[in-house]
Amino acid sequence: MPIGVYDTIPKGTRDAAFAIRPNELSPEDWCNTFGLDMYKSPQGALLIDIIKAINIGYVAEGQGKRESVPPQDNYTIDDMKHCLEHNVEFPGKYRSSSIRALVMHLEAARNWGIFSTTATPIQSLSAPNRVGVVDVSFLPDYSRALVVGILARKILEERTKIARHFKAEELGEADPRQTNVDKIPVTWLMVDEAHVLVPSRGKTAASEALVEYAKRGRMPGCALVLCTQQPHATDDRILSQVDVLVCHNLSFNDDISAYRARAPSFLPSELSDQSFVRRLPAGAAVIADQSMTTERAFVMQVRPRVSEHAGRIIRPKVHGPKEVLSEDEVNLEEERAEVVPQPINVPRVPSLLIRNSLAADYLNRVIKYRFSEYLQPIGEKRFTQNFTFLLPEVEHEILSILLERLARISYTIDEIKDIDGMPVVLLHNEEAKLVLATCLTENATVVTFSSSSLEEHSLGEQAELVSRVLRQQIP
Q1: What is the domain-level CATH number for residue 340?
Q2: Strand, coil or helix: what is 433?
Q3: Where is 405: in which H helix or E strand?
Q4: What is the rounded CA–CA span in Å between residue 19 and residue 113?
Q5: How many domains does the structure of the chain reveal?
Q6: Residue 376 domain-assigned (yes or no)
Q7: What is the pTM of this model?
Q8: Which residue range forms the structural domain that includes residue 451?
Q9: Which of 29, 65, 197, 262 is the most buried (most CB within 10 A)?
Q10: What is the pLDDT of residues 161-205, one digit of tens each?
């Protein structure tokens, strides 16, 4: 978590603060972050002079006095700003407008919350048998790129030193004074939203660092995983280094063309067909890889996740007046209550020893991955909707009770599937389709439905029917 926002984040969602030192940035890093041309912009040249002056020392003038500022190695943003505003050489070399503009850039950088004179050791992020996550979701794109670029460069530098040391040991030429050179293990750097950090047009503070990491990383043990929804908008220099490509559903022609062009192996015509790629269901992917001895492409199915998913859309809560039933509806409800449901003979639902939210997420993914073709057959334009209910009791016969109630409102069972011990029921009511899955947790019953219909308005009707079924008291 960036050090500037660490204290504002709930304790349960943070581990440690992350920071980088300003002296870890090269002039090119600063220019890319600020959107400046290092060779054409006066501010780019001014940045180079600032860093040089701080490193060797300079003469500052303020309040009518001149003083010598000694060289500084571990400097701050304020030190850079002081040099910019008080170095006696700058007024004669640069316009005041260039100096003022760069002062504003530095003041903005100070507020990003990522700089400190005490940097996070790279060994604490890249450690054996551990996954290190740097949460940059609070940062704007330009400072995200800066953080990722510095991490990539430092990991590559350290791993290159380690690889050279081990090679020297093999040759009997290792320096015995060098110790603890294996602190950083072989590292997999995983980067999300790659098209933002390494775009095909323009450069960011991460562009050159990640391209260099991809090109030089194999020998010192630096692996790279890039995730993007827009492969066509990602730098070709880094896509050309791909060894294994995993392609999920893509919608746009440019992205499908980039997938075809950058697949490391030959793609059969059916796997490169646009309609096939567009219709890949959730959880399905095309894998293409190439090595010295193999070249292959095939389709795989990813198992449903059972971990937390942070990428879902947060839906707004709907607040409305309490429902008031008419007299006819009350009479109908009373008539239905007089009929004692006879449970249908179906498998008992499983118990999952996980949190309720994870159980609901798991059920949703089972339905999405396995039954998307049932809900939305090829050639039909159907509207779909998912909804989940949490019942505050553990009811082992919940599935048979629900099916009996759904039968009362004209739903017909098409099939009951067993997915790894999880019964999933496929139903229909005229043209409307419904997939139902449920499970038990330690203290609740989780019920998940996915419905589809040719008419969008009928989805709301289905949701209301199912909600009425669940509101009935479970016997």
Answers
A1: 3.30.160.110
A2: strand
A3: helix 398-408
A4: 8
A5: 1
A6: yes
A7: 0.61
A8: 327-471
A9: 197
A10: 888 888 887 787 766 666 555 678 899 999 998 999 999 988 888
